[in-house]
Amino acid sequence: MIIIIEGPDRVGKDTLIRSLKNRFYRENFVELHYSGVKPYDGGMSIQDVSVEINKNMFKILNTDFNFIVNRSHIGEMVYSPKYRGYSGDYVLELEKSLKRSDVFLILLSDDPEVLASRDDGNNISNLVSDISDEIDAFRIALDKSRIKNKIEVKCNSKTPSEVASEVIKFIENCAK
Prior knowledge:
The chain is α/β, with parallel strands linked by helices. Helix content is 47%, strand content 16%. It contains 7 helices and 5 strands; from the N terminus they run E-H-E-H-E-H-H-E-H-H-E-H. A 5-stranded parallel β-sheet has the order 2-3-1-4-5, with helices on both faces. It is globular. The two termini are 13 Å apart. The model has no long low-confidence stretch (mean pLDDT 91).
């Protein structure tokens, strides 16, 4: 099983992942965390590095292990056009290489003002307009994704336990 958790900064991805690992502890999940690509002095462009990282991620995901992925290729569709100057839509072609059917894509969203208030200084932006744009871009990416089992969970006014219950119910219903 592969569970991919996506969404903007401070939406509750880590909290949800802890709940999922507790619920599915018998499945022995390996947790992967993919975050933004930083510039480096290695001769390759940021885009080339991103492409290689995402190709390798899909190779790993096609193994027989169970994974929970904190951020993944979907974020490339959101952040690359806005912050790196290229389209991240190439990841849709990479999705075709995913041969497993037990894949679940979960997008967490919340009110942009709530997310801005949770800023810890490490977020890409704490502007409500930027966060709103990111959420819209995540929704577009979710819609374009070829992953069959996908859902947006709106965290607005829900407790972490309620969010986890909604996600677990979705996974269990799809897995039937």
